[in-house]
């Protein structure tokens, strides 16, 4: 979804950051955070939140149409990932989006 933010908002891919974790101590569950890349924020993620359904739909379409099997730089991987893209999973991302949509 982070990579598709620039299609919904006027921004650069690097203007948005993210974190996903199987267990976060503040939520006591699996959590995905998407946040403004600027200290203090500039409102990009707030606007993205208002457009979350089209953003999730575009992301689901991207995953479904990508010809790779497990995830690649075109669909789920990012050169900016702090975890070296290790926890990213194309199939599970699709299942999560299906459930949310």
Can you characterise this structure?
The longest helix has 14 residues, at 52-65. This protein is 36% helix and 17% strand. It is an alpha+beta fold. It is globular and about 40 Å long. It has a two-stranded antiparallel ribbon.
Lateral strand order in the biggest sheet: 1-2
- Average of pLDDT: 88
Order of helices and strands: HEEHHH
Share of helical residues: 25-40%
Low-confidence stretches: none
Distance between the termini: 14 Å
Which structural class best describes the helix and strand composition?
alpha+beta
The Rg value, from CA coordinates, equals 13 Å
- What about the largest sheet? 2 strands, antiparallel
Summed up, the helix count is 4
Q: In what range is the share of β-strand residues? A: 15-25%
General shape: globular
Number of E strands: 2
Structurally, how many domains make up the residues? 1
Task: Give the topology.
Layout: H1 5-8, E1 16-24, E2 29-36, H2 44-50, H3 52-65, H4 90-100
Antiparallel strand pairs: 1-2
Concise structural overview:
This protein is α+β, with helices and mostly antiparallel strands and 101 residues long. Helices cover 36% and strands 17% of the residues.
Labels describing this entry:
101 residues, alpha+beta, two-stranded antiparallel sheet, 4 helices, 2 strands, 36% helix, globular
């Amino acid at each position: 979804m982070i990579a598709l933010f620039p299609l919904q908002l006027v921004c650069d891919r690097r203007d948005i950051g993210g974190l996903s974790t199987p267990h976060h101590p503040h939520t006591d569950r699996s959590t995905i955070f998407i946040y403004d890349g600027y200290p203090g924020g500039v409102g990009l993620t707030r606007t993205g939140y208002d457009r979350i359904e089209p953003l999730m739909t575009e992301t689901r379409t991207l995953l479904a149409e990508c010809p790779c099997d497990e995830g690649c730089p075109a669909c789920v991987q990012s050169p900016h990932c702090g975890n070296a893209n290790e926890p990213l999973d194309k199939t599970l991302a699709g299942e999560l989006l299906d459930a949310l949509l």
